[in-house]
């Protein structure tokens, strides 16, 4: 659950991306709010690349840290970097 001191979470997704759906479902399951950006919308992919240097979905931005790769890869890294938010057993 996000608190007032929790970082902002943004995810860049595409409508047909299975890893994007899994990542969003995991955040929902944990009760972690996030802002979603659809890379299929005009200008969003360019904004994401300029901001993160990444061109593949899903891209997750937590505070100032950028994560990309499969749902499993991101989940492991998020748990490691943010144990108070994502917890190791979640």
Automatic annotation (TrEMBL):
It comes from the Bacteria. SUPFAM superfamilies: Thioredoxin-like (SSF52833). InterPro entries: Glutaredoxin, Thioredoxin-like_sf. Pfam families: Glutaredoxin. Residues 9-65 form the Glutaredoxin domain. This is Glutaredoxin. It comes from Devosia subaequoris. The lineage of its organism: Bacteria, Pseudomonadati, Pseudomonadota, Alphaproteobacteria, Hyphomicrobiales.
């Amino acid at each position: 659950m996000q608190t007032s001191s929790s970082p902002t979470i943004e995810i860049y997704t595409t409508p047909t991306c299975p890893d994007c759906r899994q990542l969003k479902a995991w955040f929902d399951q944990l009760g972690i709010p996030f802002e979603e950006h659809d890379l299929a919308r005009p200008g969003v992919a360019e904004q994401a690349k300029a901001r993160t240097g990444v061109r593949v979905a899903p891209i997750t931005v937590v505070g100032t840290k950028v994560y990309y790769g499969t749902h499993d890869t991101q989940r492991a890294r998020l748990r490691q970097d943010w144990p108070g938010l994502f917890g190791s057993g979640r």
